[in-house]
What we know:
Layout: H1 10-22, E1 28-32, H2 36-51, H3 64-70, E2 77-81, H4 91-100, E3 111-116, H5 123-134, E4 140-146, H6 154-157, E5 161-164, H7 176-189, H8 194-201, H9 208-229, H10 239-248, H11 251-269, H12 274-288
Parallel strand pairs: 1-4, 1-5, 2-3, 3-4
Helix pairs in contact: 2-3, 4-5, 7-8, 7-9, 8-12, 9-10, 9-11, 11-12
Amino acid sequence: MTADISSFGESFKKEVLPYINTLSFPNTMLIEGGSAELRLSAARFIAQSLLCVSSGAHPCGVCPSCVKCEALSHPDMREYGDISSDAAFKVDACRAVRSDCFVLPNDGDKKVYILKEVQNMNDSGENALLKIFEEPPSYVYFIMTCPSRSAMLDTVLSRATVFSLGSENDSALFDEDTADLAQKIAKALLSPAETSLLAAVSPLEKDRTGFKNTVLCLKSIFLDAVKIKLHAAATPEFSETAGELSLVLTADKLYRCCGVLDELFDGAAMNQNQNLLLTSLCYKLREAVGK
Length: 291
């Protein structure tokens, strides 16, 4: 059954409806906010709107294309990634998308790629798709989902139209304990003493899920620091910590930290030894900032 656009909230409806009415969607889109399930549902709704062949309102829900979309069997609607919070988005999947998008559509005149939870994509994955985001074939549409735009590299974000399902405040995406711990670790990284960082990460010694969530939160803080250096607005809850980082670290060092965090998240997703992950977190972050 075709979803009602109102079920995604007034903000999303206001942003998306003009594109549906004019049938002129941008080639690259990012859906943020809400739950992972809601983001995926919204992405499928947009994909169905794009592929619908009705002469009336889109999506009609009854044309052959809509029926295939609802059955997830449309040959021109493809999904990559996983909505699980600890599932890494492999660079091989990004390369597969990049290659496949030059193959002409099967059923109609459009192809839609839904890239799920792209915050789990490392920098190599984002860079693998960057060129195709810049100059996609005219018939190709990318719909990415992500908890918050702040988790994405600015080079990718600048090429996407963002639709929001809810608050853009990252404080709603990380629980209070995770946000507090991530900020303590970020501030400890600025200390000349390695023991400060070791003490800050100690609550994660036996908490693998907490480790992954904290790594994601840390990446958001570092990206916020980059935004401040570029005179853009940071997430309110993280603005103080991100501001301190931006005063001390160059943009290059901040991006290096993001790369380290991507590697560590992938390692946690592959169940690497927890103590080794914590040791790597301290050593590689300090190395990234030149300590």
